[in-house]
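Dear colleagues,

As part of the handover before I leave the project, I'm documenting each prediction I ran so the next person doesn't have to rerun anything. This entry is a single chain, and its sequence is reproduced below.
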Amino acid sequence: MFVSTNLRSVCLVALALILLVACEAIAPPEIPTPTLPRATETAANTPVRVAFPTSAPTVAEPTAAASLTIVPTATSVSARGAPPVAQLVSPVSNASISVGQTYQVVVYAADDHGIARVELIAEGALVRAENAPMPAPRIFSAIIPWTPTQSGAHTLRVLAYDGENRASAPDEVTVTVLQNARRPTCSIVFPIGTPQIELGSIAHIYGVATDDAAITQVELWVNNQAYTYLAPQNANGQNAFPFVFTWNALTPGAHTLFARARDSQDQTVDSAPLKIIVVDTHPPTIGLWAERTNATINEPITLTVTALDVSGIQRVEILNGKEIIHTTKSPNPARQTALTAQVLWQSASPGDFQIGARAFNANGNVKDAPAQTISIVRPGQPTPTPAPTITPTRTRAPRAQPTPRAQPPPPPTVEILSPPERFVGTAPLRVTFTARGNSELERIELWGALPGQSQPQLICAIDAHASTQKTGQCDWNLPSAGVVTVFAQASDIYRQTARSALLTGFIGAPNLPTPAATIAR
């Protein structure tokens, strides 16, 4: 009985020990705290690394409920680096732009790992994407054209992308689009300075007008009066309109000219004034007519003097030898283009008198009419008859002449058939010229000088093939526009040369419109 009781006690103690050991095996082992990398050593593409102990505990493996999940903190930075940066340089905020005006938007972007492209967005819609060259540059700038079609406030936004297609923060500005934000511009480009031209000549006025919307008309004003106008072939106008006006210089003196440009919004602007001096170096035309050239003493003779000048006649004078015997003055010389005077002249003394006339135009130029001889005789005296000029009839015996040496014939002649003097055209300039020789021609050359060129240059040469008449044609491709001069030169087999008259003209930009001037009424 005692032994049975002791055995029961030993069994209970053993069972308690077994239960204690079992409880310790079920408890999870202690897991050490992981060590996270520092923020300064983290890159955008580097995964987070966790340090665990090298030796595992001797206890049983933990259950699934004891697995560890690592979540990066908010302070972690991707190992790829910072995103790119974009800047909209132009236009500036609140800038004014016209409807239909093409504006060049300037974009600037930078990234340490290279810029792949930049994009321009207007009102939420992509305007254009500009790709950067390869390899991707760290700094990239682009100019993207943008043409607004509606007025009002518009928001422009730019974005930059790196090689991994990461976008920058947007940079944006707000601009105001108006129907026509700016007035047109207009300028006269030729002639320059204060040119002087001859009375009666034609002056060509070259210029250009521009506008954000469209130029619809350009007018030429002379001395504050509308003279003529030009309009583009497009009825809606054009942004840049080159023009050429033709002005007839019919009045001597100083004249002020300017061009007035008008756009589609009826806004106008005037060019800088151009002052042209018209000089009259031509003398007037004068004629003297006598009723008769013979008369008796104190018998009146009617003398008629007529003077003509486009700039106006100031006065006419009748002279007896060097003595002024009559003067007729004009009350308005500038408008008196023709002046006629009739005078009764008589002489109380017989003899031959040299009667002449003289005219003065409004600019002071003088012209004398050939003098006429008027004979005054006494009553009953026969009218003098001028003795005929006796022509000698004696002939001399020919002298012995040495054998003449071979003399070359006269030199050749050459002229330019087209274009005419003071031509206006565009490149290439086609020149037609011809030469004639009294002997066989050797060659014909065309020479020309560009604006500012002191020495002419050879444009082309044509072999005459020993003919006495040769016509040629050359095209001159000028590298720039401006005033040019051309002349032709021919040579014969005797090395005699001839040069044509020097032609001066203007070569404008390609597609320069032909002037269609209409005289204002």
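The longest strand covers residues 202-222. The helical segments are 2-26.

All the best with the project,
I.
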